[in-house]
Amino acid sequence: MSSTTSHHEGKARATARKSGRKKGPATAARGTRGGLPAPGHHLSLLRRMLAIRRFEERCVELYSGAKIRGFVHLCIGEEAVAVGVNQALRETDAVVSTYREHGHALARGVPADAVMAEMYGRATGCSRGRGGSMHLFDAARRFYGGNAIVAGGLPLAAGLALADRMRGSTRVTCCFFGDGAFAEGEFHETANLAALWQLPLLLVCENNLYAMGTSLAREHAQTNLAMRAASYGMPAWTVDGMDVLAVEAAALRATESVRAGNGPHFLEAQTYRFRAHSMYDPDRYRAKSEIEEWKGRDPLKGLAELMSSEGQLDDRVMEELDKEVLAEIDEAVRGAEEAPLEPVSDLLRFVTSEPGSTA
Amino acid sequence: MSTLKAPTGTSRPTTYREALREGLREALLQDERVFLMGEDVGRYGGCFGVSLGLLEEFGPDRIRDTPLSESGFVGAGIGAALGGMRPVVEIMTVNFSLLALDQILNNAATLLHMSGGQLSVPVVIRMTTGAGRQLGAQHSHSLEGWYAHIPGIRVLAPATVDDARHMLAAALADPDPVLIFEHGGLYNAEGSLDETVDAVDLDTAAVRRSGTDVAVITYGGSLPKALAAAETLAGEGISAEVVDLRTLRPLDDATLMACIARTHRAVIVDEAWRSGSLAAEISSRITEQAFYELDAPVQRVCSAEVPIPYARQLEEAALPQPATIVDAVRRTVS
Ligand SMILES: Cc1ncc(C[n+]2csc(CCOP(=O)(O)OP(=O)(O)O)c2C)c(N)n1
Hints:
The complex is a heterodimer. Chain A is an alpha/beta fold. Helices cover about 50% and strands about 10% of the residues of chain A. Chain A contains 15 helices and ten strands. A six-stranded parallel sheet of chain A has the order 4-3-5-6-10-9, with helices on both faces. Chain A starts with a helix and ends in a 21-residue tail after the last helix. Chain B has 13 helices and 14 strands. In chain B, strands 3-2-4-5-7-6-12 form a seven-stranded mixed sheet, sandwiched between helices. In chain B, strand 2 (about 35-40), helix 2 (about 55-60) and strand 3 (about 65) form a beta-alpha-beta unit. In chain B, helix 3 packs parallel to helix 5 (about 100-110) and helix 10 (about 255-265) packs across helix 11 (about 280-290). The relative contact order of chain B is 0.13. Classes of the chains: A alpha/beta, B alpha/beta. At the A-B interface, strand 4, helix 8 and helix 9 of A face helix 3, helix 5 and helix 6 of B. Thiamine diphosphate binds near residues 180 and 206 of chain A. Thiamine diphosphate (TPP) binds near residues 100, 210, 211 and 277 of chain A.
């Protein structure tokens, strides 16, 4: 896989890094000074990525202890995409996600307790125990799941964007999906519709090189995804998905352009999952050396190193950060353990709307 | 095609197609969140002419032509409903809806439950169903029973001009997804629209003709055939009650069982295939709930278990016809 890796390493990382630092106005709004982001901003990105990492590591333990069940797909290694993209979104924007969405949900601000309680199938879960790991929802935060049909969320996202477009709103809808989803008709139907109707849609393809066990080259006749997306007539960029600053910068640039009425944009984040596809997957299709190589580009480590070299981070701060994050997760687990079960007598609720709901 | 007389008051002649169009027009006028979207609904005027003229009146934003992307635009309708709009999505025929089945089943019908009650999906999806126009298998199937299998959606089948005129408004008032199946053979059917009616009740089946000897239970495009059969039977001294289901999900058990309690016999007419059909479901419910009321086994008149053929005589032979309904009734009353 060295050719793929070097393709990843290539100019995307260089240009993305450049735009990440130099893009004055975009990052300035987020607290940069003289081209250099203020310490607080970097630290907050690191904290969010760490919160996702530790949350998912806890999920592994809980899964092994049979506390949580079902299909659980972790995004360890891909945190920079969730955090970087969400950084560019506003509260009023919408997010549509997949079954690998813990990171997206947490980065969107869905409380860790509500996500953890959902994994436990509890009444306090963000989907009242009816969704589980693959179906997290939070209507108040405009987080629309949580879709376990590969590519199934794409048309929905176009529809959310259409609703905004028809009402003249400048809100953005952001849709996350994988390289596997890119092969589905629904991606292409959505890209065509969105470009045809100039919908305010940001399509974020998390290219982690695999659809379950099928590598990019074995699933796509043409592996240059951005080029294919661009063929629909939308701006399409590739970014180093292991570099949160690069992702943030690219996402800011894309969302600004979407908001300005330039129709849909496509962002390919080249990333990698450090763990198997799901908790069931023995991961026999990837070379150990490939995984290790990518682990060398851990997005958390990358940002931490940058911060250390700029004197923004030392071991003590890092330890503090970790303690804080772990305490939050402990709290979420404790909350979930103690939370009531959704009563079986409520089994048939929410199949249709309850009296009093209005159309 | 037989015509249906309005029960009371002032009435005016109209076609099923015009009645549907009036319903759409009213919806578009009353709520600016409503828009119509589908293949050829705009410039072309709808492939069955239902939306003819609406583009001129409401413009291309609200009468929105889509590319041939059933999954894409049905999913976009669901997303737009989540986003606060009231989309009416037209799919040319139920045969093509299978390309959007994932969106209908896995998203529209499922999101409310999966989200623990947070995300309701007020989308309305209209499509044509049924055979009888020599269009061959891929344009002639009746798959509404498959959709009626799915919890989380409401399935409607207007069979009269009054229902065609008013069901859309009721569907739009429902906070959940509603599928409306329009039988292709009915668009040209004429009826008299009852002008005293301004709303329909989606929860109850309608007794379209009362009778005492047998309940003929049907819906959609088979209703005129059932009424024609009842007319013939009346000439033989057999009094058939004809029940129009109107709503295929949820089924109105109460009205059905009341009919069985009156007539003690049932014939179900359903243009879908017999195996695993809605007719099978209704028959089963009658056995579960009204077994001791029955004086004869429940009969079913369904389509032959073949892909619907093109040749006229074959197609006719494949579908329920007034004569086959009459035969089935005779068997139950003899
Ligand atoms: C329509 C559909 N087909 C197959 C599957 C089974 N499946 C679940 S995840 C997956 C791989 C998807 O890969 P990708 O889109 O790249 O996302 P990733 O898992 O890498 O994040 C497959 C085949 C599914 N859930 N839905």
